[in-house]
Amino acid sequence: MKQFLYMATIAMGVTMVSCGDGAGAGKPEQTATDTAALVERGKYLVTVVGCGDCHTPKNMTPQGPVPDMERFLSGYPAGTELGKFDTSIVKTGQWALLKGDLTAAVGPWGITYAANLTPDDTGLGGWTLENFKRALKEGKYRGVENSRPLMPPMPIEALRNLSDEDVAAIFSYLKTIKPVKNLVPAAQLNPPPPGAPVAAAQ
Asked: Residue 65, exposed/middle/buried by CB under 10 A (0-12, 13-18, 19+)?
């Protein structure tokens, strides 16, 4: 009888451990599923919002510029000549110009370059989700609280309407893409015109 009780106790212990292991194993799997879904949502948003239109360098073909997927979302290619443009036309504010591959823009505000959105250290490597959220929803350069505003052609007025969940999804996806080392040049900004809001001068 004692031997039976002893064996039954061991069997119950093994069963409880097995059940516990099974329950514990289920949680990481669920987390992995959630993460995969978040990344997939981010990929979808990056595609439909058109982030690659400006942030991916292009190769020129007979059909026009085609995204260079080896440099996907790596921003304006460092060391590339911007090319000449008529500064007198740009300063009037009647025109804004885009570089042929759309990775740079020129307007009354100055010259701006599409940022590197890959997870390399020259891109989003050191960013937190909070930085990214502040950049997209508040239009702050590098997502730093007291930094200057992000400049055209970044569509901040549209992006600020993204939900926090969508911002997290985009950030999660960008952390999974191929890191590309590319240190984008700093913007060359003109002084704000007289009477401009104080925020534009930061």
From this structure: middle
